[in-house]
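Readers outside the structure-tokenisation community will struggle with the description of the input data as it stands. Showing the layout once, in full, would remove most of the difficulty. For illustration, here is how one protein appears when written out as sequence plus structure tokens:
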Amino acid sequence: MNIVVEQLDKAFPGRSILHHLDLRVDAGEIVGIIGSNASGKSTLIQLLSGILRPDHGHITIAGVDIVQHPARAKRAITTVYQETLFSQVVRPVAVLLSYARFYNPRLSTKDVRKVLLELGILEQDLRKPLFKLSGGTKKKVEFAKCLLGDTPIYLFDEPFTGFDAISRKMGYNTLKRLRAQGKAILLCDHEQRVLRLSDRMLKLQEGHLAPIVIEEVRQKMQVEAEVKGWREELKEELEKLSEVEEITVQTAPLSEDEVAAVLQKAGIDPGANKTKVIYMDGEPDKLLEKLGLSGAAAQVMRTPDKISSHVILTITLTEEASGLDNLDWLRGALTTQGLEVLRLERIEV
């Protein structure tokens, strides 16, 4: 059972995304695709999972052409999307139970609850609709899909964003177990940490795939630091350290109290049934247009500086620094820049 992509093309109005793309993922391997934001990774995942149709080319899933026989092909796939497609007004257990019974009718409510709790989701969060959950918790609900079914092919689009170190390690072990079971796995991400999981690595750039030599970066360690007081100019300063190769930055998921505080300050009742919070980077007008909404249908707010300065840093160390026994030097470098270090730990793979 494998994935075969031949001469795949996809374009949107005014922009070409993928060009004559070829890809093969065989049973029992993890193929990693790395690329910057907007490079086309999510578009590729949506094409392979049958959400989008290709403009040209062929996609074969477990021997079935997904354009000619979409229902048959989709039954062979489990997809963990970058942003969940589940209804936001349904609670986690109910929405996953409905999803999972498509693949495994014998699953019970108890089975689904157990998986969610093992992923670190709090009991009280299981009683909330998805739109009231933090970004990291929503990602765990989405990731739970791969623990509830049994398909020959698995597609992952930045599956670990918002995961803490413990949840990420569990996620890594899940992918390793699926590979050992002979599954064909495609893993897309914009961070080099996916290299540590992949048997083969490809870079998606300007619509084309090119191989990367995994051994060149496999020995470099990554550290995750959760800090407060972040300023954009600090990235360049910290990357000047001889021990640091690269730093990626993502805003830490807002807590429920922080979301409520922002909404209340804007005069919005966070408990109202019609209130839904969407996090996004980029231009909100374009998102509203895609959703068929006008600017009057939603209120666009910028995350307050006090909250947006709370970030999670993924720090890639040089090969020499990767061999150091402790991280005291790094904690010192962060605090010297005026940062409050909430958490500092190696990323285990």
